[in-house]
Amino acid sequence: MVELVVAAAILAIILASLAMALNTFRNLNYYFLTKQSCIEAAQAQLDSFDAVGRQINNDDFKRLWPIIDVSIEQTKGEDQWQGLKLLKVTASAPGRN
After folding, report:
1. What are phi and psi for residue 86, nearest 5 degrees?
2. What are residue 68's phi and psi, to 5 degrees?
């Protein structure tokens, strides 16, 4: 009977460790997916400025990237960059609990 209890306890410990490892992999996968989505959204905004001279419509942007928030800072170029625009695009997503 003792051997059965010990075997069950060891199996429970192994299953708990496996569940914790799977949760860690799930969180890591979510992090990388969110990071890639932020990069794609920022690149799309830059491409839109390059192609049509303005950012993507807010409704279209939220339809494509519902969890991503993006901000665009536009300044005039200085020194050798006079006559050009400097665009700083920042994309972020809320953290997962």
Report:
1. -105, 120
2. -95, 135
Nearest partner of 16 among 27, 6, 8, judged by Cα: 8
Task: Compute the distance between CA of residue 55 and CA of residue 68 in angstroms, rounded to an integer.
Answer: 15
State the Cα–Cα distance between residues 7 and 1, nearest whole angstrom. Answer: 10
CA dist 49 and 83 (Å) reads 15
Q: What is the pLDDT of residues 20-44, one digit of tens each?
A: 999 999 999 999 999 999 999 999 9
DSSP H stretches of helix in 1-97: 2-52, 58-64
Residue 24 token pair: 């860690």
Neighbours of 44 (CB within 10 A): 20
CA distance 84 to 76: 6
Percentage above 90 pLDDT, the chain: 79
